[in-house]
Amino acid sequence: MTDEELIRQALAGDDSAVRDLHERYVDRVFQYLYIQTNHYHDAEELLQDVFYKAAKNLAKFKGRSSFKTWLFSICRHAVIDYYRTNKNGQHETSMDHDVVEALSESKASAESVVMGQFGYEDVVDDILDLPYTYREVLHLRFIEGLSIRETAKVMEKTTVAVKGIQKRAKKELSHRMESEVSVYE
Amino acid sequence: MSRQTRRHLGETDKRIREAMEQSQADLSDRSKHDSMMAMMRGVSEAREEEGHQQKREQKRSFWFAMSGTVAAFGIGALLLFNTAPVQEQIGTWFGEEDAPAVDEDEEEQDDQTEDTENDEEPQDEDDNEEIEEEADFEVNKPSFEVVPPEDVELDSNNRLPYQTVEFSYEGKTWEETFTQFEVDALPLNMYIPEDWEVSEETGNGDQIEERIRIGDHIMFDYYSPGANANNVESSVDDMVQNKGIQSDEVKALSEDELPEIGRGMPYHILEGGYHILIEGDTYQEIYYGELSGRYVKMTFEFPYDEPEQWSDGDVLLQLMSQQLPSVVETDDQSIDSDTEREEEPMIQYQVDDGVAEQTFQLFYNEELQFSTYIPSTYELEETEDDQVEQYIFTTSDDREGQLSLGIFDEDVSRQEAWDYILDNFAQGRNGAQNPPSWAVDEYRYGPGTDATGRAILAERNGRFFYIEEHAENPETSMLEFGPTLNIAQEFWRWEETDEPLVNE
Fold first, then answer.
1. If DSSP states are collapsed to H, E and C, what string results for B249-292?
2. In the UniProt record, does the keyword Zinc occur (chain A) (predicted)?
3. Is A147 near chain B, with CB under 8 Å?
4. Buried (b) or exposed (e) across B94-114, using 16+ Cβ within 10 A?
5. What CA–CA distances, in Å, run from A78 to A33, A43, A97, A141, B300?
6. Better-scored residue on pLDDT, B115 or B223
């Protein structure tokens, strides 16, 4: 069933359609929020905001872009608001603590969490240390698989600007990862 | 792109994708549940709102249908059952007769209008009498034809360096050369008789900020921004009084009598003018009007016994063109206190082969201490990078293009700044030929790229900055962001020195 069909059914009163739509996007939205905020708990809170706002405005979705693009635009604005309101409260990267704490409540075992992180920490830190727009473009392009045009729509930038940011982001991340490798070598 | 490079890029992308995937974190069941509940709450409100909306629409349809029915019923009732009072009333509106048919009705109204007009008091004939006798002299001036020279190269502004003019007067014909002329004080491109000397004066009172004398016969007075047409006319009155010129020697020109001005002038500049003929002394033509938000008065004065020169002013006016972009005077001029510049001027500028006019807003940057103008309809987004502070101006959410200004951090070198421009904006080969004189370097999108526009890198007091515009669609760049970038350059002013960006 397409997103648009699910939306129609959800608005018509079908709760299972709401659940399906949520299930389809919840992890992806969370990943975006997490990579953008660099803070697990804040991403969890924003997740609720995003789904509440998206659902409340569901009737306003006119299908001019894909639902996914529309949803990620809402995510982006939520992140912008988040940074606006947390301007003075710098969030330190507390990946280990946050993730482990959160995942202790998830299905994943503590062992797998720790093992999963082992050896990746530096790379993850590299990514989370990237400028906000770099993380955003890399996430939308490489994880979400959005096209340049879709990414431009979500990021409210021109395609040229998106290409530029992507180029710089890739260069920067590659450079950081190479530095990590050379340190270990 | 070589196969090896492509493979390398593919590998880089793969590594990045893997790295990005590693940075993912699992979402806890509790959070999933909470966000599901939040979504349910939102959906329920959306359904409720949708329900209200439908009810509102139903009500509106109902009332619309009802009001239509009621109106129809009411009209029908009036026509079928209760026409007497209406007819009676109509009788009093149009006399004692029955209500006339519609066309008669109109005739009656017309008659009434005529009657009303006829009832008006006749105008006092004296009102039309002229209070002062006005001059009605005719002058016989040489006729002329501008003959553009052949095989002469245009300059960088696509202008001919000179023009040849063929005059004829009372059976005589002769040629004169008019050479290109422009002066900083006036936003005009002109041609003046060859070898005529030009002098500039500033601040000589009477609200005249700049006075430009061309030879012995032509003078331009450019008034200060607050001056208006009355100030200009008063100066003519004063001159007439001071020189003891008689009223029959001065002819105030009607709009039809004002000369045709300029090629490529965006609008009719001249508002008024005078011809002054003093027999045995001089023949003068004075014209005035508004130019870039300020009044300009043009005076052409020739010896009475040298009528062959009397058309020189006409030639000058015909060959005149306004330098664009330029500010158009508006009624409400609000001045910014920091920069003392107009906050929202109306600016005229060249677009393709036409002239556009729109309101711009003042943009002031404290970091580099400059101000310029950006269309007031543009939305501004400010972003900070690890190297640069960016101001991105766009017209719509679709982002088909943008104009942006970027100010690099103090420790960013020229090479780093240039690399940033190439990384952010460049696609394919650099199509720039000659960067502007004020710039360090320029990138232009060349053929084969899917964007149009350019990015210009410059430096101020050891700090690098750039101005950039681009669009996916060449038309958007040509008609929107390209001209806007030109205007931003033209109106750019360094606040500490009051200097423009473009010095040429």
1. HEEECCHHHCCCCCCCCCCCCEEEEEEEEECCCEEEEEEEEEEC
2. no
3. no
4. beeeebeeeeeeeeeeeeeee
5. 9, 10, 24, 19, 67
6. B223
Taking residues B358-377, what's their average pLDDT?
94
Query: Would you say B451 and B429 are in contact if contact means Cβ atoms under 8 Å apart?
Result: no
Query: Distance between alpha carbon B406 and the CA centroid of its chain, in Å?
Result: 26
Is the ipTM higher than 0.85? The answer is no
CA nearest to A123 within chain B: B19
Partner-chain residue, chosen from A50, A168, A173, that has the shortest CB–CB distance to B16? A173
Which chain A residues have a beta carbon less than 8 Å from that of B23? 35, 120, 123-124, 127-128
Which 8-state DSSP code applies to residue B137? -
Q: Bridge-partner residues for B70, per DSSP?
A: none
User: What pLDDT sits at residue B439?
Assistant: 93
A168·B423 Cβ contact <8 A: yes
The verdict on a CB contact (< 8 Å) between B42 and A54 is yes
Residue A161 to chain B, least CA–CA distance (Å): 6
Query: Which range scores top for mean pLDDT: A8-17, B78-87, B264-273, B315-324?
Result: A8-17
Q: DSSP assignment of B418-431, as one string?
A: HHHHHHHH--SSB-
Nearest Cβ partner for B43 among A58, A160, A174: A58
Residue B431: phi and psi, rounded to 5, are -90, 5
Q: Which of residues 472-491 of B touch A (CB under 8 A)?
A: 472
Higher pLDDT, B264 or B459: B459
CA neighbor of B422 nearest in space, from B400, B444, B448:
B444
